[in-house]
Amino acid sequence: MIYIAKNFFEEMIEHSKKELPNEACGILAGKGNRVERVYAMLNVDKSPESYFMDPKEQLKVMKEIRNLGLEMVGIYHSHPMTKAYPSQRDFQLALYPEVSYLIISLEDLNSPEVHAFKIKEGKINEEEIIILKNILFVCRENSCRSQIAEGLVNYLYRDKFIAYSAGSEPAKIINPLAVEVMKEIGIDISGQKPKDFSAIEGIEFDYVITMGCTDVCPFYPAKERLDWQIPDPKGKPREFFRRIREEIKKRLEILNDKV
Description:
Elements (H helix, E strand, L loop, with lengths): L1 E4 H13 L6 E7 L2 E8 L13 H13 L3 E9 L8 H6 L6 E6 L7 E8 L2 E5 L1 E11 L5 H12 L4 E7 L8 H8 L23 E4 L13 E4 L10 H21 L1
Parallel strand pairs: 1-8, 4-5, 8-9, 8-10, 10-11
Antiparallel strand pairs: 2-3, 2-4, 5-6, 6-7
């Protein structure tokens, strides 16, 4: 089973169409079986029947993946004229038994098919692709409430959502108390950073949730918009941050049960 956000899924398909009539290829980076980055690669074969990545480009990407604290979780390529199933050459090129191999069939250009496989010990086993819903949390400074919500989702509900957060006037750092109360429940958000809306430009969201800043947060399109009216804990004591964390956690449980 491999988990991938809808925008990453569509990015692979668009890259595959762009490279027609030749095969497209790329690397999927993330953690475990969850895709967090897509790297469109150059197919040096320039063939409609095979692909081979540029070794120099591949080395550069692998270094970047390691520097981000990620790992290669998958390799994708397209079949311009055949089914989404590994060919004999695909089988021979499957040198990484631990990763997933995604194949995009453009046999029907209006309805591309994508299938994922594990190729290990001479066997091909198809695995399920789970399309994650994108959810955006918005507050003014993107330093407390929205950061806590992002961390909770990406830890507790990573099999259903991929969460982002942003602010209309982002602070320079995450509020230290937000980081501390999350560590109390085993979730480390110290690597997250306040962001403005340019950081999530181009992502299509299933949910946009404002945390109580509708008067200062700009409209951001989504399939569904919610306003949770969560009080801002900035300047409040640790216990207030804990109450905010638990309130957000409770609301996420309700949202998860509805989806």
